[in-house]
Amino acid sequence: MKPTRNTMHILGMFSFKVFIIFIILSFISNPAFSPMKSYGTSDTSGNYNSLSNKKLSFIYDKTIASQTDPLNSTQIFEPEGVITDSQDNIYVNDIQTNEIKKYDRNGNFVTSWGNLVKDGLSLSHPHSSEIDGQGNFYITDQNNRRIMVLSSNGTLINTWGNDPNKVAQFMHPHVVAIDSEGNVYVSDRDLDDIKKFSSNGTLITFWGESGNATGQFEMPWDVAVDNLDNVYVPDYGNNRIQVFSNNGTYLKQWGSEGAGAGEFNHPAIIAFDKSQNLYVTDSDNHRIQIFLKNGTYLSEFGSEGKGEGEFVKPESITIDSAGRVYVADTTNNNLQRFVPIYR
Question: TM spans, by residue (predicted)?
């Protein structure tokens, strides 16, 4: 049967509407027209997040406890360390007030731990913290050259590091990490080594010396442990990441000096997300770089500046259970939070 003119008109209008809907959906789905302001570069290498098979980027979410007038003790003044616990509470090492400040997952102030004194010495320049499986806190009491141990409620339990055995002593304890068995690792920025202790401070082993050869360091800024208890060290002065077994056996390295993808200008602190992707504060490139554990570059975010999503020598980084990234920017005196997006 031959279609009538009216039927043809109806079919034509339907086709035109379908075409218009297709154009609108194409426009909306284009990331270039996203209404969210992104501070990430969505994976310029073409690599993808290992689990989502989508490109990983981040957007600025909020600044935690920023300084406002009048100033008060709940605010963050000079953050050098930041970690989160299993409940996504946030703990900030504020080196201006020599306190550990606790905030809930929404950034509301909970409490602070200060005036911590042992053997006549007060906590001084607490650069970093880590939490063990029992909820105890291990803090690098930097100016006193020791580790300070607190209970989950901030009660002082112990200090160690000023050992008569000079091999076990610190010159500049910088960052502390804990493996799955409760062993404690400390990077000593001035001695250029990594020391491994039992949870009570008994020295187990150590490795490293000054230099740029394999297994040598020029200011090991951090020490981080993955889910297999391998040890990652940002070799700050040599602009590389070195990886070791938990007894100090060298495994691999990556990185070189520069500002390109996978290059560093003073890598500082490492954090792992749930997928064991590795985030590095690339301090003097004013950005965060993200890698697979094997060193494959994934993406980056951040740029130099004082605005939202910008950094000046970002120092510390941590990631909560929701994948939200916290970056402590000591120079800008702030702690910024970023949320992940997958494209």
Answer: 7-28
Q: Are 175 and 129 in contact (CB under 8 A)?
A: no
% of the chain with per-residue pLDDT over 90: 78
The number of beta carbons lying within 10 Å of the beta carbon of residue 15 is 10
* Confidence (pTM): 0.84
The rounded distance, in Å, linking the Cα atoms of 63 and 330 is 13
Tokens of 171: 């010159």
Question: DSSP secondary structure string, 67-116?
Answer: --SSP-TTS-SSEEEEEE-TT--EEEEETTTTEEEEE-TTS-EEEEE---
- The secondary structure of 265-290 as a DSSP string is SSEEEEEE-TT--EEEEEGGGTEEEE
64 belongs to a structural domain? yes
* Residue 35 located in a structural domain: no
CB 300 within 8 A of CB 42: no
CATH code of the domain covering residue 86: 2.120.10.30
Residue 5 amino acid letter:
R
Q: Please, which pLDDT band fits residue 166 given cuts at 50, 70 and 90?
A: confident
Contact (Cβ atoms closer than 8 angstroms) between residue 253 and residue 214 = yes
DSSP letter (8 states) at residue 42: -
**Which residue in the block uniquely carries the two structure tokens 């290992």?**
50
Q: Which of 228, 306, 276 is nearest to 63 (CA)?
A: 306
Range(s) of the domain holding residue 127:
56-342
Residue with tokens 């200090």: 159
Whether 29 is covered by a domain: the verdict is: no
Q: What are phi and psi of 175, to 5 degrees?
A: -135, 150
Residue with tokens 């039992």: 198
Q: Tell me the pLDDT tens digit for each residue of 275-292.
A: 999 999 999 999 999 999
Query: CA–CA separation, 139 vs 75, rounded Å?
Result: 20
Total structural domains within the chain: 1
Beta strands (DSSP E) in 142-201 are 146-150, 156-160, 173-178, 184-188, 193-197
DSSP code for 228: T
237 phi and psi angles, rounded to 5 deg: -75, -20
Higher pLDDT, 36 or 112: 112
In a domain, 124, yes or no: yes
